[in-house]
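Example noted here:
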Amino acid sequence: MKPLEGRKRRFGDRNDGFLVRNLDPMGKLIPYIMRSKSDSWVLFEDRIDITHTQEFLHTMRKSQIPGLTLYHIVFAAIVRTYSQVPELNRFIQRNNIYARNEMKGSMVVMKGMQRDSERTTIMPRFEMDATLPEVVKEIEVLANPIDRTKKVAEDENRNDFDKLELALALIPGWLIRFVFSLLKFLDRYGLIPRKITGLSPFHSSFFITNMGSIGMQPVYHHIYEFGTISIFGAIGSKETVHELDRKGNLRRKTYLNMKFVVDERICDGFIYAIGFKHIKSGISKPEQLMERPKEVIHDKIDRR
């Protein structure tokens, strides 16, 4: 089940999204008032109690999902949130707001923990009603490409994005400037071939980076002017504390710090608040991610 599945393209739509036509007056004016992402970003952070989540992780690793990580749960919580708050899966181009026609996340995968270790960017695609095991499977298939192919070649550790990245890096600087100027122009009008946007982490529903994997707390990461990303999140290392509960008893708690940079233009603050509550709920109570959502809510983009 994909966002707005089965909908036919109309004049004004793009190959990667559908024009939102039911905006209120302020919603329509905002992209003209704030012309760029750097002019419209909003910072958000939260501290999530993952004491129960840690217990859930240990149980699932022993039984149903051996390779489960906290990073997987964060991804699954965001996917579930998009199925309930579809306005988050929007982007801006040419002062217009579009509803994205797929669910694609982006993440960086390190192939080692040394200074010179290689890294790659993967872009798993998800169904709107995906469960936690399905999210884990989609991520792991891309993070471990050798596991999904029996063919061994010299570039077996490189995915298609790595190859595109390498090819662009080999051309002269003046030509790189021309290529990206052309791509930005084409992107404004939705004319970049889908084969290219499919390989681009800058054309994703969201990008999440795991700062905790290198022992750091999260940072506020910019949302790229190039491409259509509207939400960039960072998670930090876990923090264990001892604190008093309401009855005065000392309890051991584990928290996860998260920071997001979002494009304010795609929806209002109330919708963002609803979305972040869903993310927090999914992370702190991950058992709900084992089942499909009762209902997938689709973005209402047409005039009433």
